[in-house]
Amino acid sequence: MKNIVFALLLSLLTGAVFAQSETVKTEVIATELAPGIYRLFVDNRVSVALQTGPDGLLLIDAAYDRTAAEVKEAIRELSDKEIRFLINTHLHGDHTGGNAVLGKGAHIIAHPTVKEYLSKDQVRGETTFPAPPVHARPDITIKGTMTLDFNNETIEITHLPGGHTGGDLLVYFPAAGVLVVGDLLFAGYFPYVDVSNGGNPLTYLKNVDWILNNFPDNTIFSGGHGPVFSKTEYKNWLNNLSETLEVLQKARSQGMDAEQMKSAGLLNKWASFGSFFITEDRWIDTLYPFLQQ
Question: Is this model's pTM higher than 0.85 or not?
Answer without folding.
Answer: yes
